[in-house]
Amino acid sequence: MAAPKGIWKVITASSVGTLIEWYDFYIFGSLSTIIAAKFFPAENPTAALLSTLATFAAGFIVRPFGALVFGRLGDLIGRKYTFLLTLVIMGLSTFLIGCIPAYETIGAWAPSLVLLLRLLQGLALGGEYGGAATYVAEHTTAHRRGFYTSWIQTTATLGLFLSLGVILSIRRLVGVDEFTNGQGWRYPFLLSIVLVLVSIFIRLRMNESPLFEKLKTEGKTSVNPLKESFGHKANFKMVLLALFGVTMGQGVIWYTGQFYAQTFLLSKCNLDYEQANTIILIALVIATPFFVLFGSLSDKWGRKNIMMAGILLGVLLYRPIFNEIYLTADVTHKDITETTSSQVTNAVKMQTITTVFKTFADDSRLKTTATKHVGEPVIKNEVTLSSRDKWKVVGLVALMVLFVTMVYGPVAAFLVELFPTKIRYTSMSLPYHIGNGVFGGLVPFLATLITTIKGTDHLSGLWYPIGVGALSFIIGSLYLSNKIHEDVTE
Amino acid sequence: MKQVKRILGIVWMLIGPAAIILLLWGAANNINPAGHGDINKPLPWIIIISIFTPVAAGLTVFGWYAWKGEFDDVEHIADEL
Question: How far is A200 from chain B (nearest CA, A)?
Answer without folding.
Answer: 33
